[in-house]
Specification:
The chain is of the alpha+beta class and 167 residues long. It has a domain at 55-161. 31% of the residues lie in helices and 23% in strands. It has helices spanning 22-43, 92-107, 144-156; strands at residues 55-65, 71-75, 81-86, 116-121, 126-130, 135-138, 160-161. Strands 1, 2, 3, 4, 5, 6 and 7 form a seven-stranded antiparallel β-sheet that branches. It is elongated, with a radius of gyration of 28 Å. The N and C termini lie far apart (95 Å). The model is unreliable at 162-167 (pLDDT under 50).
């Protein structure tokens, strides 16, 4: 009978998952970051603020679902005139944004009648705001393809061109 060998746990770092200098490197990075933040606070360093943008063009729009799945876009400042129809099955992002805003309105007990405000800003941004819930979405952050259906509304709806800064 042969004596059985028992496996003893090895405390040596043979086959460690981390490279040799990873832990000290990570610790140095964390220390540097903390020192940089503390120095910025003590010295009152701040990021350079962007100049404030002004509203260039504003549309006041309402959106209504049709039984066939299309969405009517109406201009609230021009007798609720129909300015565009989003065809069924198209513009999924725009539909998702509008569904989300409608859901928020229902949760806050606001009806569908009050218009939304679509604004083109001097810095190129597009925002869609619900004045009833105070929710504002910067549409350009979702990419130019997703913002395009909203940008196109400025070419089909009579827009209010603003002159100079707005309050």
């Amino acid at each position: 009978m042969q004596p059985q060998a028992t496996a003893q746990p090895s405390h040596a770092s043979h086959g460690s998952a981390l490279p040799r200098g990873a832990v000290p490197g990570a610790a140095a990075l964390v220390c540097f970051s903390l020192i940089a933040v503390i120095a910025a606070r003590i010295m009152h360093w701040q990021a350079t603020p962007l100049p404030p943008a002004t509203a260039v063009t504003v549309l006041h729009l309402s959106f209504r679902d049709r039984p066939n799945g299309a969405v009517e876009v109406r201009d609230a400042e021009h007798d609720d005139a129909l300015v565009h129809v989003i065809a069924p099955g198209t513009n999924g992002f725009a539909r998702g944004v509008l569904r989300g805003l409608a859901r928020e309105r229902r949760a806050e007990g606001v009806g569908a009648a009050p218009p939304f405000t679509l604004t083109r800003w001097s810095d190129g941004r597009l925002t869609l705001e619900d004045p009833q819930t105070k929710r504002q979405l910067s549409l350009e952050v979702f990419g130019p393809t997703n913002a395009q259906p909203f940008a196109d509304l400025f070419t089909v709806a009579p827009a209010t061109e603003l002159q100079g800064p707005t309050p």
